[in-house]
Amino acid sequence: MKKYSNFLIALSICFASCVTIIPEKSSAHGFIITDEPFIFHHPPRPPHPPFPRPPRPIHRFLPLELRKNNVSVKIKNQVAHTTVEQTFYNPSRQRVEGTYMFPIPKDAKIEKFEMEVNGKMTEAELLDAKKAKQIYEKIVRESRDPALMEYSDHGMFKIRIFPIEPGKEKNIKIKYTEILKRDGRITSYHYAMRAEKFLSVPVKNVSVKVTIESDKELKSIYSPSHQINVNRKGKKRAVIGYEEENLIPDTNFELLLATDLHEESPIGFDFLTHNENESGQGYYAMLLSPGSWENKEAIPKDIVFAIDTSGSMRVKKLDQAKAALEFCIDQLNPEDRFDIIRYSTETETLFNKLRTAKEQQTKEAKEFVKGLKAGGGTAIEEALVLAIETISKQGNEKSIRPRQIIFITDGRPTIGETRTDKIIDRLVKKRQKIKGNMRIFSFGIGTDINTKLLDLISQETKASTEYVLPEENIEHKVSRFYEKVSQPVMANISIKTEGNVRLNEQHPNDLPDLFKGDQLVIFGRYKTKKKETDRNIRFELDGNIAGKKVNLKFETKIEKKSKNSFIPKLWATRRVGYLLEEIRLHGENKELKDEVVSLSRNWGIVTPYTSYLIIEDEESRGIPVAQQSMGNRLGFSKLNSDSANTIKSKATPSSKDQNWFQRDLEKESFRRLSKNDSGSGAVAAARASEQLKQANQSKAFKSAYKEAQYGNQISFEQQATRTIAGKTFFQNEESWIDSLVPEQKDRTAKRLEFGSKEYFKLLNQDANTAKWLSVSVNMQIIINGTLYEIFSPKS
Predict the structure, then answer these.
(1) CB count, 10 Å around CB of 252?
(2) In the predicted model, what is the mean pLDDT of residues 392-404?
(3) How many helices (H) and strands (E) does the chain have?
(4) pLDDT grade for 14, boundaries at 50, 70 and 90
(5) What angle do CA 671, 673, 679 make, to 5 degrees?
(6) Do domains 20-38+58-260 and 304-394+403-486 have the same CATH topology?
(7) Can you say whether the dihedral through the CA atoms of 735, 702, 286, 219 is positive or negative?
């Protein structure tokens, strides 16, 4: 794996008037050196009148700000050309000089390295890993900050940069060429973007653009680290984009590219594993992709749109829903068949059967939608049953068409059957009579909806539910979703395996359909049945493509030791989302809660729900607060703008009480998740658990945390966590706690002073230990079964 740290700038700052410099503290972009004042030797002065002693010089930190970090990459097969453009700003009043350090892993295959400073080519010094480590360690000793030790096994390019004028910018441009690692069909590209330990202010502009060209057809294009835009330019070329503003990057950029070596299969299939200890068990990821899906006929589908026209949809909501329906009608292919159902106190259909989407039928449909008016109750059960009956009227066709129901509602059932379990029972019985699969995609509008009913419907039909908040635009949400599902590529997918490997705990377990422009990412765990035997595994991928059943076969081999470190945390994130949904839809029990606690603590998956369960667990076991994962959090609260009018007279709790207030809020959030069917808390829980269940990037739980706080009058910042070299750490006040520490409450810690001889002996034990100790000066950590407490001399 190649990780190139662009952000890690060791800036040796000195003033023109200084004779010597001393290291003071690690700061924004590495470390800062401040001045040691001159001592002028004056001739003896008379004792009278007394001369006051001059004031002691103040040592100021002079962190440079990183204002821009733009990365442009061109990948041709296994060769990557990377160009990094960065802009640094000196916010101080002093001219400064600096040393720019660019760490390089020892296994990097760099063929060419160029650097420009303000447009002038500059030669950089290359240091091997041994020499670089000496510099890193020297900086740690002098600056009393271990952050750089994360790169202790990396080589380094080093260059002097001067001067950096006060209030001015310095532009740096780096170009390098590398040979990328290839594992089977997968080529990996890595770029070290993470810099939260070296930045004091957000970067104004961060962007990554990757242009890919391949001699073979490109299939899966996947980033486990960032949400990217993929623009395919034919079968063998694509452009990847990522851009953010005002960001403190906390995740390295990672990109996986899969090519179809034989160009025989219409669907790309890849199987990746993670197993660092050769134990015969580990984690896996499956990637299914249709590639560009060019020059292939649109697959005909059957679709029923069911729209709520009850009184609560009046005016704005109904207008937006009608506009969304018109968009969906325009997207229908001529061979598609469709119908529209409107429901309130009663139901009404447009055609009373499926009709092909010819010009006359789509014109009638638009007129029907235009005339919809709101009024009456909400007959959800009757509408769903009618939609299922309508879509099941296919005659005696041999082909298997994808069948979808788009169900839009803003309320709970008020007409006919209103009990959730009875409605689900009837839908299940109706669905069992239909040959093949049928998907019901639901849209819940607002917060006065039955979230459990909608999610159980989605669960039973292997579909999904989208929740549209009151402040969100219905037309935008429905249109964007339909644009994705309107072009199915493969439906009714199932995967069978043969070989000496057993797969389990797969998420998602019920596989959804695969659509054009999308890909299916599956995570799970595996275990070899017998040690030291055949590790080959064969897959059979069954499904329907273009109305015909297909059977695709793939074969791969599981290596004894493999490293795709993104897989375990993403599997754990999805697993936690699945467990929380089980609690939400079917009720809580001790086994579910215990597994949520274990996974969330081990992998740093912080949401209000998991935080409450972890606190409950650790307090019940008598873990001291100083050793708790969620002990003394440095949480910052803010008054939500949508709540300002309702609590004008109430003050935000003082910092002393915020920790307890946050715990009470998390307890209430979990109660809403497990008990409430409707309301803002129920919608927040549904949206948060869906974010976790669909996690494709390592920071998905951050989005889930934000979703979970919807409707709260006061929101809290998420507790800081870091996962590095397989260990997870939680911030507890000014200290960081290894996630294993709460399991060691009766063990006496071995105390080591930061910077001591014993500390550096431990740090140099191996590369992983150095990376773990880079997290903080003050920390508690388990290493080889021993509990260490690292403390600062000042603490």
Answers:
(1) 19
(2) 70
(3) 15, 40
(4) very low
(5) 100
(6) no
(7) negative
- Cα 330 to its chain centre, rounded Å, is 33
Q: Whose CA is closest to 219, among 175, 167, 166, 256?
A: 256
The 10 Å Cβ neighbour count of residue 759 is: 20
pLDDT at 195: 76
Across 130-139, 238-247, 487-496, least confident range: 130-139
pLDDT, tens digit, 9 for 90 and up, residues 679-691: 999 999 999 999 9
For residue 461, pLDDT beyond 60: yes
Strands 203-213 and 65-76: parallel
CATH number of 20-38+58-260: 2.60.40.3680
Residue 462: left (phi > 0), alpha (psi -120 to 50), or beta?
A: left
8 Å CB contact between 758 and 783: no
Confidence band, pLDDT 50/70/90 cuts, at residue 241:
very high
CATH number of 304-394+403-486: 3.40.50.410
What's the CA gap between 403 and 299, in Å, rounded? 11
The domain ranges of the chain are 20-38+58-260, 268-296+490-564, 304-394+403-486, 588-718
DSSP state string for 637-689: EEE-GGGTTT-TTPPPPPHHHHHHHHHHHHHHHHHHHHH-SSSHHHHHHHHHH
Spatial distance between the Cα atoms of 764 and 346, rounded to a whole number of angstroms: 74
Given this model, what pLDDT does residue 572 score?
A: 96
Q: Where would I find the H helices in 348-468?
A: 359-370, 380-391, 420-432, 451-460
Structural tokens at position 59? 């040592």
Question: How many angstroms separate the CA atoms of 758 and 751, rounded?
Answer: 10
Say if CB 681 and CB 711 are below 8 A apart. Answer: yes
pLDDT at 20: 26
Whether omega for the bond prior to residue 508 falls within 30 degrees of 0, making it cis, is yes
Homologous superfamily assigned to 268-296+490-564 = Gamma-adaptin ear (GAE) domain (2.60.40.1230)
Crossing angle for the helix pair 655-675 and 608-620, to the nearest 10 degrees: 110
55 contact partners, CB below 8 Å, separation of at least 6: none
The pLDDT tens digits for 688-746 are 999 999 999 988 888 999 999 998 877 788 888 998 888 999 998 889 999 999 988 78
Q: What is the pTM of this model?
A: 0.87
Is the pLDDT score of 360 beyond 90? yes
User: Within 10 Å of residue 433's Cβ, how many Cβ atoms?
Assistant: 9
Mean pLDDT of 421-448: 88
Sign of CA dihedral 625, 626, 629, 632: positive
Distances (CA, A) of 642 to 188, 639, 670: 44, 9, 22
Contact of 298 with 335, CB cutoff 8 Å: yes
The CB density around residue 330, as the number of other CB atoms within 10 Å, is 11
